[in-house]
Amino acid sequence: MKPLFSWMTTFLWMMLFASNLADCFDPLDPNGNVTVNVDIHRWTSNGYVATVTIQNYYQYRHVETPGWQLGWTWTNKEVILSMTGAIATQQGNCSINFQSAHSCMTDPVFVDLMPDAAAVNRTENCCRGGLLSSWAIDQPNSISSFEIEVGNLGHGLSYLPLNSTFMGPGPGYTCSPFADAPPTVSTVLDARREEQVFRTWKSICTYSTFTVNKAPTCCVSLSTFYNPKITPCPLCSCDCRPGNSNTLECVGDDLVASSWPGPNNVDNLLQCTDHMCPVQVHWHIKNNYRDHWRVKLTVSNHDYGVNFSDWNVLVQHPSFGQSLQSYSFNSTTIQSVANSGAQLIDDVALFWGLANYNTELLQASEKQLGSVTTEILLSKDQSSFTLNNGWAFPRKIYFNGESCEMPLPDDFPALPDASTAPKHTALLPPLLLLLLYTMILQVVLGL
Ligand SMILES: *[C@@H]1O[C@H](CO)[C@@H](O)[C@H](O)[C@H]1NC(C)=O
Ligand SMILES: *[C@@H]1O[C@H](CO)[C@@H](O)[C@H](O)[C@H]1NC(C)=O
Ligand SMILES: *[C@@H]1O[C@H](CO)[C@@H](O)[C@H](O)[C@H]1NC(C)=O
Ligand SMILES: *[C@@H]1O[C@H](CO)[C@@H](O)[C@H](O)[C@H]1NC(C)=O
Ligand SMILES: *[C@@H]1O[C@H](CO)[C@@H](O)[C@H](O)[C@H]1NC(C)=O
Ligand SMILES: *[C@@H]1O[C@H](CO)[C@@H](O)[C@H](O)[C@H]1NC(C)=O
Q1: How many domains in the chain?
Q2: Where does the COBRA C-terminal domain start and stop, copy by copy (predicted)?
Q3: Closest CA to 315 of 28, 58, 20
Q4: Last residue of a domain, one of 177, 195, 211
Q5: Which of 52, 178, 283, 421 is the most exposed place for a label (fewest CB within 10 A)?
Q6: In angstroms, what is the span from residue 163 Cα to ligand 4's centroid?
Q7: Are residues 185 and 223 in the same domain?
Q8: How far is the CA of 91 from the centre of ligand 3 (A)?
Q9: In a domain? residue 14
């Protein structure tokens, strides 16, 4: 009975995993995307002035340092005469007619200005070094915009750029071709009047881990108050403990070698572990009260060379439909699509650091891991709450939008057989006696 049950749960979890692989979108954030709008709001004698807006609609995927990069290919002989709020990374060949132009590249790439940019070069929503917050955490900072003055076109003409690309900051985003969209409308004069731009182009960029084929960077470990067993991260979650042949070292009890390409694509020194993940999320079931239960959630950084600023952790657990209180992290519940279909469910909670307290997940040091931790108090829905069968463990955890490797249900710390064990021991002697009695009867009496 028991092995069959475990085998079935393992199978079900594997099915779940496989179906997620097949999905081209994240079921926990089905509407997430980065939308790029080009709003032409002024014609000039030989071109136009446009505002380019990058809006991050991802609930929990942000763009971290070194920031976004947006690119496209002009289809005519467009030249960017001037720009504010961002820069093109290359000027290109402007030698003949446009010596003072900002960029004459046919495939310009744009990056944000840094926060110290001069006032004359700034626009609204610019100059954050390309950082974009996620939608669920910080909407005002989930938008970036800049202005371009485009020349070298006949009066009143404009041609859709092609092949838009978005890096946030690494690869993984695929953008739809720019297409005409209903002109962007904005309100002016205390919202008593609406004005619209002349022309709007839109491109939608979506992220997929599978297009980058990235190795996991995060794993989950579990423990409980009722079982001394600690379930570690699955072995080799992100990589296996390397042999001595590698060039870089990892730091730990036995100095062996490894490296991990961090956000800046630099090789970082990792702590030697059996999972070799830079980030570990630990879920500890701490207390079981009458109406509530308490979890301790800890996020640890095993990397000696990376601080994660504005980190976030997403946890899926059926209990988050009830009220939850997290003490040392900021949190919100977000709606996701149930695996079965289009029904919205409320069982996903997003956690992030408190301002001026733990928004930074610091790098590990020789003495300790960088870590942030909180206790979470959850109310119980008596009809569903149970410590049995791993129900109280999370279904899925993401760190900064990347899925973390979960232990298999077979490895979860089990409830001690407290309820059944005494019954067994109480039952066993009579059974044994009966057996002995039968054997004695058989042997001695020859029955
Ligand atoms: C992009 O995100 C916005 C906001 O969630 C949503 O309204 C829109 O439908 C999305 N677009 C696509 C193509 O997914
Ligand atoms: C720059 O462009 C002009 C005309 O478009 C061309 O004549 C010139 O050779 C180019 N210079 C270089 C260095 O490519
Ligand atoms: C900022 O503006 C000044 C004056 O318009 C200009 O000379 C300079 O190149 C601009 N800097 C950037 C980074 O755009
Ligand atoms: C756009 O990308 C496609 C595929 O990568 C390429 O074949 C095409 O030449 C590109 N178009 C332009 C104008 O660069
Ligand atoms: C991480 O933050 C600590 C403390 O603010 C700082 O000393 C360290 O240099 C930072 N590390 C990196 C890689 O930025
Ligand atoms: C929690 O997050 C919200 C939304 O980003 C923010 O307005 C608030 O200041 C945060 N609270 C703390 C204590 O950091």
Answers
A1: 2
A2: 217-413
A3: 28
A4: 211
A5: 421
A6: 6
A7: no
A8: 13
A9: no
